[in-house]
Amino acid sequence: MKSILMIGQSNMAGRGFIADVAPLINEHVFMLRNGRWQMMAEPINPDRSVAGISLAATFADAWSHDNPGEQIGLIPCAEGGSSLEDWNVDGHLFRHALSEARFAMETSEIIGILWHQGESDSHSGLHQSYYDKLSVNMRTLKDTLQLHAVPLIIGELGDFLGKSGFGLYSSEYKEINHVLRHYTNDHTNTYIVSSQLLTSNPDGIHMDAVSLRRFGLRYYAAFKEQKNVDEPLKNEMDMVMAIESRTLTPNETMHDLTTKLAKGKIDYQTFTESLTGKS
């Protein structure tokens, strides 16, 4: 089984509104939860009660499409509101990510690291020390886990920042993006993903659900092709719609119906009739 480590702050954890997009269900995609690999369900990274859609689902679904019959697991370790200093190598977030990664490596092979962070460092000149801190963090992570050949994919901050809502506090996002590009250019197996044309929730800081679906596909393109993704992908929205409209397998249908029953969205009669094909 292959696996992907997800680290960063809230736009990696995901704050897209779940009701805004169709659910993604894939019996070949799993997430690490309570020490077990469970079939993917959103929110994948429940760091907060407001966790929602993240970029990880479309990333993993695209990987699954290219690797039929194989399984991939997501290792969610992102923490909303965390600064780069919060991710220092002696801190609890870094140590937690190491712990989860080691646990996942008992039953899987980590093949990629996804990083998205910087909104909390986009003010007060913090970008000036960002490169050095990020270098220490990522070097230590790869050294400790022996993941030197594993690609690191980094996403740009959205250009909706600095304009409204909570995003007003991230006024130096362009400077952080400049540092991120500098970092990816200086390091092998490291690629950056454009945030061009992505939009935010009304809060002005978190990417909306549709944008995160698109962002995940860009992350996967960078991972697959091992190069920077400097602009939106061709037919990006068509790709999202194709993933969301895919016919479910029997196992996926059972998972979907069981989830709806447990959440009170359908009653038991509807559940059984759906399974038997009766109406």
Number of helices: 9
Instruction: Summarize the helix and strand pattern as letters.
Output: EHEEHEHEHEHEHHHH
Number of strands: 7
Category from helices, strands and their pairing: alpha/beta
Query: Biggest sheet: strands, sense, closure?
Result: 7 strands, mixed
Rounded to an integer in angstroms, the radius of gyration calculated over CA atoms is 19 Å
Major sheet strand order = 3-2-4-1-5-6-7
Per DSSP, what share of the residues sits in E-state strands of 2 or more residues? 5-15%
Q: How far is the first residue's CA from the last residue's CA?
A: 39 Å
Mean pLDDT: 96
Low-pLDDT segments:
none
Tell me roughly what share of residues is in helical segments: 25-40%
C-alpha geometry: globular
